[in-house]
Design a protein that fits this description.
CATH superfamily of the domain at 66-307 in chain B: ABC transporter involved in vitamin B12 uptake, BtuC
Distance between the termini of chain A: 65 Å
Distance between the termini of chain B: 16 Å
Oligomer: heterodimer
Helix content of chain B: over 70%
Structural class of chain A: mainly alpha
Structural class of chain B: mainly alpha
CATH class of the domain at 66-307 in chain B: Mainly Alpha
Mean pLDDT of chain B: 90
Order of helices and strands of chain B: EHHHHHHEEHHHHHHHEH
Largest sheet of chain B: 2 strands, antiparallel
CATH topology of the domain at 66-307 in chain B: ABC transporter involved in vitamin B12 uptake, BtuC
Number of strands of chain B: 4
Mean pLDDT of chain A: 90
Low-confidence stretches of chain B: none
Number of helices of chain B: 14
CATH class of chain A: Mainly Alpha
Strand content of chain B: under 5%
Largest sheet of chain A: none
Largest interface: A-B, 53 and 50 residues
CATH architecture of the domain at 66-307 in chain B: Orthogonal Bundle
Number of domains of chain A: 1
Radius of gyration of chain A: 19 Å
Chain lengths: ~300, ~350
């Protein structure tokens, strides 16, 4: 394996959790809901996936359980924001704090235990091709799933009737309600989908990226995924591009650390967070671009009038 | 239609529930904690006693409560002001760290300047450091329309890494056996204590609460903040500048978080180290919301959240409970407050499918 191959492989690994979580949050925000709890759902998904993988010996089952856990931990958020019309920013923060606390609590007994790694899907022949072989083939199922889900979400949002309804709900919930669309049901399903994807992103961290459990192992990836959605102006393919850009930044930091360059490792570790801020500035300064794409109802509670 | 809960908006916010909702949330939180403790394999009543009551039964632990409430009061007061203006500063943890770093420059870089003035300089630098760190998201929001929630949070990680670098690198105690910590602060570089470990920061924290009250109820700026929060349009028509308000509430909340940071380092810990706060900056978000963004509410809520930290410690010692319990409880508490708060503005009615049909028939 040469240097370029190794670099590309690690970029894919770093981008996958960001992509999974951001694609989920994109659907949530397109429906007009801002769920800031991605980090918490991700952390819960990571520990549940780790524990189930360890217990059953099946990392695939673990990943599945992690996804479900992400959705389950989002239920209080659904209840608060959809049934009680509570403030979404505060509810999302509560979800982030709660999920991080809960994951630490569940994970207490799992610290330092060796995990089970998700198998790579090696395709004999294809995986052995130089450069493209390892880069395109031989990843685990979650990497392919992240691509598949990106395409599926793009198709769903812009090519199906249900996707149109979801976007309509996010653009104007009063109009959508008046047309007879179940605003709160659509949003509930969107939030649960976001939970599944964030849970899966967490699962990727604990059964594939680094198969172990470390407290706060999500390291802000949930927040970066939130920024990615803004950066991508709520478009799935741009989320894909953004996730890989951020994955590359993450890995460049790690590589630069290994190479030295005399820079302290902490500075390079700060790179993804600083890059996130820069990316947000670049995209937000263009007010027209942002206004044109932002779901108009984002963060606003909806309460059907009676 | 199936039966469902519906909410009717009250003509005016309920006074009963604006007091009752936090109490209801608290009661539910205690009940759910009992369930959580039982799930963790502890006898729930004993665990609840150890967690919530025992810390209140001795003078020593009451002092500890004040020690832990100090940063929560300072940060909570600042966040309450910011949230009133609808400015979501959630990076107080990072501002706390930068305040601690800036204030620690005095004892670490000029160890010989050891007099009351040096202490005042530490506090001032602490506030400045926090304010400067908070100014970044405020500037980016005003200038580039950047979401302050995400930028202020990203800066928490950056601040944490910066502190880590300092205490492992240039600011490490050369005589410290390679431990990642700075020299120990001595003399006037340590905040004077009032009783036990309660230090000067506690007085400053109470002053901050008083200042918040003064600002919100007696000052033009506090009024502008409230108008901005309730109706940005009305604020604009009244001639209040949204960006000036954003910058000022961020500076104030950042300064208070920075003060909390230097208070922790110079008052409680006594030196700089990689981890200086068990998430006070995040817990203070709960303090502000639970306290209903009001000075007296923040005062009460800060002590309650301090109790969750202290109870967590005593449960860790007495029952060997994992340390993360307090964070999970804090998140749960915030969920419950937000839920209970609905009762202030809405009346909950349960309508069955039959009611709905009857109404349609009418």
């Amino acid at each position: 394996m040469n240097g370029l191959e190794a670099f590309l492989l690690t970029v894919i690994a770093a981008a996958t959790p960001l992509l999974l979580a951001a694609i989920g949050e994109l659907v949530v925000e397109r429906s007009g809901v801002l769920n800031l709890g991605v980090e918490g759902m991700m952390a819960t998904g990571a520990i549940v996936a780790f524990a189930v993988a360890l217990g059953t010996g099946s990392p695939l089952l673990g990943a599945l359980a992690g996804a479900v856990a992400g959705a389950v931990v989002a239920l209080p958020f659904v209840f608060l924001t959809q049934l009680l019309a509570a403030n979404q920013v505060a509810s999302g923060l509560a979800l982030a704090l709660f999920g991080l606390g809960l994951s630490g609590l569940i994970g207490e007994g799992f610290v330092g235990q060796p995990g089970v790694r998700l198998a790579r899907l090696d395709i004999p022949g294809l995986s052995d091709l130089p450069l493209i072989g390892p880069v395109l083939f031989g990843h685990d199922v979650l990497v392919y799933l992240s691509f598949f889900m990106t395409a599926a979400v793009a198709w769903f949002l812009f090519r199906t009737r249900a996707g149109l309804v979801l976007r309509a709900v996010g653009m104007n919930h009063h109009a959508a309600h008046a047309l007879g669309h179940p605003v709160r049901l659509v949003r509930t399903l969107a939030i649960l989908f976001g939970g599944l994807m964030a849970g899966l992103a967490g699962a990727y961290l604990s059964v594939s990226y680094t198969p172990q459990w470390v407290e706060d192992m999500t390291a802000g990836r949930g927040w970066i995924a939130l920024a990615l959605v803004v950066f991508a102006t709520w478009r799935p393919l741009r989320v894909l591009a953004g996730a890989y850009l951020f994955g590359a930044v993450w890995i460049l930091g790690l590589h630069a650390q290994a190479a030295g360059y005399g820079l302290p490792p902490q500075f390079l570790s700060a790179l993804p967070y600083l890059a996130t801020i820069v990316a947000l500035v670049l995209i937000s300064r263009n007010r027209i671009l942002t206004l044109m794409n932002t779901p108009a109802m984002i963060g606003q509670p909806f309460m059907p009038d009676r | 239609m199936m039966s469902m809960i519906t909410l009717e908006r009250r003509p005016a916010p309920s006074r009963l529930w604006s007091l009752g909702a936090p109490l209801l949330a608290l009661a539910l939180a205690v009940a759910l904690s009992g369930v959580l403790f039982a799930a963790l394999g502890h006898p729930p009543l004993r665990a609840l006693y150890v967690y919530f009551v025992e810390p209140l039964t001795s003078w020593w632990s009451l002092e500890e409560l004040a020690v832990k409430a100090t940063p929560l009061l300072l940060i909570g007061a600042g966040l309450a002001l910011a949230y009133r203006a609808n400015v979501w500063n959630i990076g107080a943890e990072g501002q706390l760290i930068m305040g601690a770093i800036a204030g620690s420059a005095v004892p670490i870089l000029w160890p010989d300047w050891n007099n009351p003035l040096a202490m005042a300089a530490m506090l001032a630098l602490g506030a400045l450091g926090g304010a400067a760190w908070a100014a970044i998201p405020a500037f980016l929001k005003n200038r580039f329309n950047t979401n302050e929630i995400l930028t202020s949070l990203m800066l928490v990680y950056v601040a944490g890494l910066f502190l880590d670098w300092l205490v492992r690198g240039p600011w490490r105690d050369p005589m410290g056996f390679n431990f990642p910590k700075s020299v120990a602060f001595e003399g006037w570089h340590v905040l004077p204590t009032l009783s036990g470990r309660v230090h000067l920061g506690f007085v400053l924290a109470l002053l901050a609460i008083f200042g918040l009250w003064l600002m919100l109820s007696h000052m033009r700026f506090g009024f502008a903040v409230r108008v901005q929060g309730v109706s940005p349009r009305a604020a604009r028509f009244s001639g209040f500048s949204a960006s000036a308000i954003t910058m000022r509430v961020m500076l104030i909340s950042g300064a208070l978080a920075g003060l909390a940071g230097i208070g922790e380092v110079a008052g409680t810990i006594g030196h700089l180290q990689p981890a200086i706060s068990p998430g006070y900056g995040f817990a203070a978000i709960i303090v502000a919301v639970l306290g209903r963004l009001s000075p007296w509410g923040v005062l009460a809520a800060a002590f309650l959240l301090a109790l969750t930290y202290l109870g967590g410690e005593s449960a860790q010692l007495a029952l060997n409970m994992p340390a993360k319990v307090s964070q999970a409880l804090q998140g749960m508490l915030l969920f419950l407050i937000l839920g209970a708060d609905v009762l202030v503005n809405y009346r909950i009615t349960w309508r069955s499918g039959r009611d709905e049909k009857r109404e349609e028939a009418e």
